Amino acid sequence: MGENNNAVELDKEEQVVETGVHNFSKEEEWVKPDNPMLLERLEWFKDQKLGFMMHWGPYSQLGLVESWALSDEDGEWSRNDIDWISDMEEFKRQYFDLNKTFNPVRFQPELWADLAADSGFKYLLFTTKHHDGFCMWDTHTTDYRITGKDCPFHTHKYADICRNLFDAFRDKGLAVAAYFSKADWHTPYYWAPGMERGRNMWRGPSYDPKEYPWLWEKFVQFTHDQIMELMTRYGRIDVLWLDAGWVRAGRRGQDIRLGEVVGKARRLQPWLLSADRTVGGPYENIVTPEQTIPEGPMNIPWESCITMGTSFSFRYEDKYKTARQLVHILLEVVAKGGNLALNVGPQPDGRLPEGAIQRMKELGAWLKVYGEGVYGTRICAPYFTGEWAFTRKENTVYAFRLYKNSDKPVESDITIPYAGKVGRVEQVGTNRVLEFRGTDEGIGIQLPASEASGQTPIAHVFRMTIE
Predict the structure, then answer these.
(1) What is the DSSP letter of 135?
(2) Cβ within 8 Å of residue 392, ≥6 positions away
(3) How many CB atoms lie within 10 A of CB 259?
């Protein structure tokens, strides 16, 4: 994640979503599983709508984009904030030594889980390992881990961050998705000593796997061992969320035999969904746009990964999207058939940023009133028009009238652009039954004068019973 972290202008209360660098698979490229349990779990996933995504690791100490500055190929866009050194080889040494100072002693997993559950999030999507190779669990495969002796946090009661975080979120009834980078720039099996390309290093292996098959096989086994640790020692995992889409069969020999390890994992956890990002095929059960929302609805399982601020990892003095923006982003995603994985980067001391906490609470307060039109819904024409978002549950259609600016006057005479036959219209939040009439443009309703003269809401929400 995190291939585009340019700051965005947030002064105006309008929807702001950056264009993500990651492509995402098209609807027609999605492969429908033939396993009945996986199909059932995909319907479960489509019900959830809101996930709490977190990028966290030693890189948080610098306030930089996670991992990417290590790759010379990606240096042009990822090294903007490196203003203290010009020698990138020295920078890489400094970066890989960040484990020696990472000590998030203010980490309180139960508080994170309480906040997420109370704010309407339904699952956690956590970075167990990013491309830099630092493991946030007690792995036995490398010393480059949160519980390693070089990391001062290794003596803390919450040292095994993944275990404590996963347990805390499951205790609150939230599901767990484990982000795992298939690339690993720390292990000598991927960026091999003596085979580095110096200042010309790219994101892939430092050697040709076809020329060094024995070394590549070590990397494959290393990757399988790490994945199986997470699958066997960390309780129920609902989604294995795989990043680094360039690591795949047919891409410079980078076949990690993913089907083999996913098969082993599913023998232990048969409900496990996999999201092999941007690769397509049978292991990309969930399509994952990054920092963007598809232009139109997609009737497949998908999830937009969007930052609450301007960066996936913690950024000092970051600017967070307003509650209005977050609700509108969520409604556009849901109206087009997706889930929103809303990303917050924790601070290096183990706390969540105050600005992010406030936004989560505001989003949660809105969902407590209007969430019935969000959770468990499916797409419904006309989907999303800019001013309107629509969802459906059986014979109930929810229509959301979005107000992009807090100072926009609210019209009392509203036409809902819906073409179906309606038997009843209610206003969610007040349960007020509204008189309505059919028009050439849709369903005409009249709001009470108090609604038109009051503060501009984030959205008006209408519940329509369909005949």
Answers:
(1) B
(2) 377, 378, 379, 380, 398
(3) 14
User: Tell me: the pLDDT tens digits for 49-85?
Assistant: 999 999 999 999 999 999 999 999 999 999 999 999 9
Provide the token pair at 432.
Answer: 């007020």
In angstroms, the Cα distances linking 153 to 57, 62, 99, 271 are: 12, 17, 9, 33
Which residues are registered as beta bridge partners of 241? Answer: 179, 275
Residues 253 and 209: beta-carbon distance below 8 Å: yes
* Helices and strands, counts by H and E, the chain: 10, 16
At 339, the amino acid letter reads N
332 with 89: CB under 8 angstroms? no
**Calpha distance 170→345 (Å, rounded):** 20
Alpha helix ranges (H) inside 336-381: 354-370
Quick check: bond before 104 cis, omega within 30? no
Question: How confident is residue 18, by pLDDT bands cut at 50, 70 and 90?
Answer: very low
Separation of alpha carbons 252 and 190, rounded Å:
13
Which sequence spans correspond to the domains of the chain?
27-373, 378-466
The mean pLDDT of 349-356, rounded to a whole number, is: 98
The model's pTM is 0.94
Q: What is the mean pLDDT of residues 316-334?
A: 97
The pLDDT, as a whole number, for residue 196 is 66
Q: Does domain 378-466 have CATH number 1.20.210.10?
A: no
CATH architecture assigned to 27-373: Alpha-Beta Barrel (3.20)
Q: CB–CB of 12/322 below 8 Å?
A: no
How many Cβ atoms from other residues are within 10 Å of residue 363's Cβ?
Answer: 22
